Amino acid sequence: MAEWLDFQVYLEGHWIWLALIPLALAGAYYCYRHTLPAVIPPVRWTLIALRSLAMALLLAVLAEVVVDWWNKQVVHPWVLVLVDTSPSMGVVEEGQSRFAGAAAVLSSPEFAQALSSARLAVWGFAETPYPLALDTLAQVGVGGQATDLARALGKSVEQVADREQLAGVLLVSDGAHNLGEDPGRVAAEGGVPVYAVGVGSIQPPADLRIARARTAEAGYLGRPLRLEVELSSWGYAGREVKVLLSEGGQTLDQQPLVLADGPQSIAFELRTRGAGPHIYRLEVASLEGEVARDNNTALVFVQVLQERLKVLVVGGGPSLDLAFVRRSLEADSTLVVDCRVEEQAGRFYQGKQLSPEVLATADAVVLVDPGADLVAGATGQLLIEYVRQGGGLLLVGGARTWRGGTLVPALAEILPVELAPGTGFIAQDVPLGMGMEGREHPVVRLVQEKEGADPWTQLPPLPGYLEGVHRKEGAAVLVEGSIQGKPPLMVAGGAGQGKVIAALSGSFWRLDLVSSGVGGRPQTIRRFWQNAVKWLALKTPAGRVRVWTERPIYRSGEGVAFVAQVFDELLRPQSGAAVEVSLDKDQGLQLQDQGRGEYRGLWRGLGPGEYAWRAQVQAGQAQIGADEGHFVVEQHTVESADLKANPALLEEIARLSGGQYRPLAQWHQVVEQLGARPRLVQQHRSLALWGPVWPLVLAMVLLAAEWVLRKRSGML
User: Fold this and answer.
1) φ/ψ (deg, to 5) at 181
2) Eight-state DSSP code of residue 58
3) CATH topology (fold) of 545-640
4) Contacts of 357 (CB under 8 A, 6+ apart)
5) Is pTM, for the whole model, over 0.70?
6) Nearest partner of 386 among 414, 348, 345, 408, judged by Cα
7) Residue 447 above 80 pLDDT?
């Protein structure tokens, strides 16, 4: 409602102009007391009124009359109520589910009374938020496959009609966030205080689950693989269960396990049968009283290769780096290493020359500190053709390679970097750090997963870097120097249908030698060489379109991430294409252009099962390529991986957003702190006659109307 509080008229000009208004009115009357010809009284009084109003308005403008008024309005704030309806809210504690306890409070008369002065926007959420009504909350069931608190906070706030009147968010949840972004960061950046009400106990519910199953993504025919399995249980200490390993419905192995509260580990030895992709199933029988049963199974994907990878190591001459790289690769039993070292220009020790036939048998080539004489002429052309036809090349630089301050001209064509003219090798200690693209690249990511955080920062510095080096479009900086300018030190990219990694420094053996003391990490650089040649050896499909899923197996509730690379006729990265992925007969997913010929998209909400996908790519009206493949969504949901409540996360969300946290029993305190009370808003408005155009226009209209009426009455 609105009420008048005050009304005021004052002058910003001189009062004398208002004093002239009676004279102007008298003058208007005097002019029209007699007319020629005579007119009827209504016309005469109309003429007097028009003249009087016009003159009075002009004099009021000259006096600069200002009218001020104030009014007040009672505004009821909005409160956004977010209710967690994910499966973890169905956990029964003390004879009642978490959701039932929350619903009893939210649908109670006491809660309605506490927020009676606010306008409520109510949303439920699991993977994504949806509108809800408090009066039907008791009929709502829990469901979904995951909990995304960040998405719920972000999307629901966007739907509030009047964001400026939003007093805060009342979040009712157990805090079991397991999908999407960091909800604390979203809450901190949202600008709206979150008042969290925690539901559930931090004590884990009675459950047995397969928490994690890990093995190498690739194995070799006839060579066993170690499969590590982590189980977690609560409430079944002393019970014995059997963990089964199977493939295609056939049991391969089983192991007994006596349960203890908390995590436990066992290991299987996989005996691969036949080359190609294999999906293994781990299963443990469900126990009576478990809160979730889909987490008693897990799937594991392994790509079995026919034989070990053949790596050709070519050295520009004997060196410590050559010995170190060769030793690191030979330590990996999945690799077969053939080493050839240049003795003089164009000649190799023991007559082991390079030839097209030798290169054709290599899955990857490692070039260690080559000089111009090694790769000049026919040898350089062999390497370039090898890469362009789909081969993988790892260049490990050194004094010969950077001699003269430039890249070896024959190699510059296929390397993933460019050097500005006149730049050279700068000799100074360079600490290492993981590059931004390296965090997602498989060569570096596999090292990070084994060693945690950024292991490169714990290595000794390299003795120098190349000044003015820039990665080419589409290349990825895996490791960079932690100095000003962050020079790239390890860069991966493509050339033709092949792949190249360039190590842009020298004396890499120091990273191993100096790190081999107590607490050192020599395994970081050793694993880098091993992972690099394995990644280079993986053949990418030919053609202009390459599409894949980031993983072959996903848990229910996870979004399936599709990645595509599109190339033009010259196999250069192509942006601006339309990439659509379809699943069986389902509607397609349009991948988003990330630049540099890369496209990404996330398919959400898929249920358990095996899916076949097909990608179509168009540029304008032209169809330029297609790709297809498979992936599996397992029964094990993201939600069932951990069903215990997480009040610490809710408390952090509330703190970062400027709100408060309380357990469900203290919801009254949260609502009181929310402060969703009506506010008296006072508005001030002002109307000035001096300055705006409309008073003059109105005066002109009045005078024009007077003139028209005079003419129609026959007056001069």
Assistant:
1) -70, 175
2) H
3) Immunoglobulin-like (2.60.40)
4) none
5) no
6) 414
7) no
